[in-house]
């Protein structure tokens, strides 16, 4: 009933790890005191502009954590996406070094909180994967289907890796997989400038640049025609006022790039008619299964890096 009452509070490890939905300020004050919490792990990420009404939850949390002299750690996860490697590595680092007891929370206390609770049990106790994954059961409000299935897929990928290695779970093996092997699908790349824009670029003349995209993931990239189909490169030109002047795509053709292989892509830009300094930025995009562009997934969402270079137009 706590799921429907809004608190969704539960004990993961007695006296050490707790989980909850997003608490209000008064609820957090009460919980910190009652369980002697020393660290709050907020899995929703840090909010900017905390004086805005929509971010009142974050402001209340910061105030409560400060008043009780406890650590607040902000980890940015989405219940609808596989967790970014950089955020998962940071979560492990926090759990390795922070003071306990710890309170995990996201918004509903069901999906991201279930993932973090499962991870804790697998890394720091002798729980089996089957037992630990009960933290992602419907009793906590999590459903292993639809939009929030990536929380379960993360651990499916780990268990698939164990099977491929013909071995079984141990905390050390999970740590190795998470820190050195895990890749969120195809979303890991290395972008290398082969040819930057000429310097300067003449006013009123189109120009081009070239990038080599290296597949650093464990899955094959499939390039296809159409920006809503497969993997491709998205790039844009912005001015000094941070306005987007042009946006384009490269790699809208059929090609296959296996893990460790690369593909060279041309970034064609039409003429810029106003002298000045501009920025040319590029990132990899996964358009697989996206029926509309807004549902495309930038690799950056999963912790990948974009690249940028300056363009001088004279």
From TrEMBL:
Protein's organism: Fimbriiglobus ruber
Family of this protein: Belongs to the protein-tyrosine phosphatase family.
PANTHER family reported in the protein's UniProt record: DUAL SPECIFICITY PROTEIN PHOSPHATASE TPBA, TYROSINE-PROTEIN PHOSPHATASE
Pfam families assigned to the protein according to its UniProt record, in alphabetical order: Y_phosphatase3
GO molecular function terms attached to this record: phosphoprotein phosphatase activity
Descriptive protein name: Tyrosine specific protein phosphatases domain-containing protein
Lineage, broadest ranks: Bacteria, Pseudomonadati, Planctomycetota, Planctomycetia, Gemmatales
